[in-house]
Amino acid sequence: MDHQSEKKYNVEIKKLPGSRIEIKASISAMDFDAAKGEAVKRLGADVELPGFRKGHVPEKVLLSKIGEAALLEEMAEVAISHAYPAIIVEEKLDVIGRPQVGITKIAHGNPLECTITTAVFPEYKLPDYKKLAAKTGKNKEEVVVTDEDIAKTLEQIRRMRAQGIAETEGKEFDESAPLPELDDAYVETLGAGKTIDELKVKLRENMLIEKTREAKDKKRIAIMEAIVTETKIELPDVIIDQELLRMEDEFSADVSRMGLDLDGYLKSVQKTKEDLQKDWRPDAIKRATIQILIGKISDEEKLEPDAELVTRDVKALRERYPDAEENRIHGYVLMLLTNEKVFEFLEAQEA
User: Fold this and answer.
1) What is the rounded CA–CA span in Å between residue 82 and residue 42?
2) In the 8-state DSSP scheme, what is residue 350?
C-alpha cells in the first residue's frame, strides 16, 4: 500500500530560510465540523450569563452571545490543535518551538485551510570528525612553568602584602614604593608551605596544573572549531535565543558574585539586554552549533556518561542549588558529562 494514501491530511511543505518550514494544510470539512462540540465547550467554560451557572450556558444562548465568527475561530483552533501533531508524525518533521498559524479559508461545511510556520531542527551532515580531531590534535603544546612565571607570581604576592600593610596602617598604597621582601614567617601565613622554597615548589605545582588545563581547553576548542568550520548548518532563531538566555543566566551569576545585579550593571555601562544579546549573538551561534555537533557525535559513537557519575554530580548540584528544578539539574549534568566523554573520544583520535 502506498504510504502517501494512508495520510489523513493533505499538506504541502515549503522550506524557508533559517531552518524554518511553511506547512500548507487542508483539514477536511468533516474533521472541521467535528471540532464544534469541543469549541462550544471551551467557549462556554468561562461565560457567565444571568440565570445560568458558569459553564452551563445552553449552546443556542451561548452562540447568540459570542457570534458566528468567534465560534469558527475556536473551531479552527481545536481542529488545528488535533491535526498539527498528526501532521508532524505523518510527515516525519523534527519541529521545535511554537508554531505560527494563519487561516486562509474558513467556513462551515467546508475544508479548513491554513498555513503553519515553524522552526525545525537543522539539517546538516557531520564532517569526518575523527580525521579532523586527529589532524588538529597533532599540534601539541609543551606545558612548562618557567622561573620567570614563578618570579612574576612572587612579585604579585609581594604587592598583595604591601597593599595589606598599607591598609592596616590606614595609608594609601604607594605604587612607586619598594615592595616588601618575602620571609618564611609571612610564607607560613599563606598556608602554602613553611619556607620560601616550599612556596616556590607549591606555586610550580599549581601553575603546572592550571597551564595543563588551559592547554587542554585550548586544544578542545581548536578541535571543535575545525569540525564547526567543516559543517554547513543553519540554526533557527529559537535555538539561538535559548543559548542567549543561557548566556544571560551565566552572566547574571558572574555579576552577582561581584555584588551587583544585572540591571545595575547594565545601567553602569549604559547598555540594554538587547545590546548584550546583539554582542553575544555570534558566540551564541557558535556555542549552540558546538553543542548540537557534540550531541550528534555522542549518538554516532554511542558515548554515554557513567550513571553513577551522573547521580553523584546531580546530588552535589542539588545541595548547592536547592531551589533549582530537578530536571534542569539532571539535564545540565548529563550535558557536561556527555561533553567530557566526546572530548576524550576526539582527543584520543590523535593516536
Assistant:
1) 15
2) G
Starting at the edge strand found earlier in the chain, the sheet holding 95-105 runs 10-16, 20-27, 112-120, 95-105
* CATH class for the region spanning 3-120: alpha beta
**CA–CA separation, 196 and 205 (whole Å):** 14
Q: In degrees rounded to 5, what are phi and psi of residue 321?
A: -125, 75
Return d(Cα 67, Cα 60) in angstroms, integer. Answer: 10
Looking at residue 122, what is its pLDDT?
A: 93
Query: pLDDT tens for residues 227-270?
Result: 999 999 999 999 999 999 989 888 888 888 878 888 888 888 88
- CB 133 within 8 Å of CB 227: yes
Q: Sketch the domain layout of the chain as residue ranges.
A: 3-120, 123-231, 235-291, 303-351
Q: Which amino acid is at 196?
A: I
**In the chain, beta strands by DSSP E:** 10-16, 20-27, 95-105, 112-120
